[in-house]
Amino acid sequence: MLSEIDHVAIAVKNLDAAISYYKAAFGVEVEHRELITSDLVEEAMIKVGTSYVQLLCPTAAESPVAKFIEKRGEGLHHVGYRVTDCNEALNRVKSQGFDVLDEVPRPGSRGTTVAFIHPKGALGTLIELVQP
Question: Quick one: residue 31, left, alpha or beta (phi over 0 = left, psi -120 to 50 = alpha)?
Answer without folding.
Answer: alpha
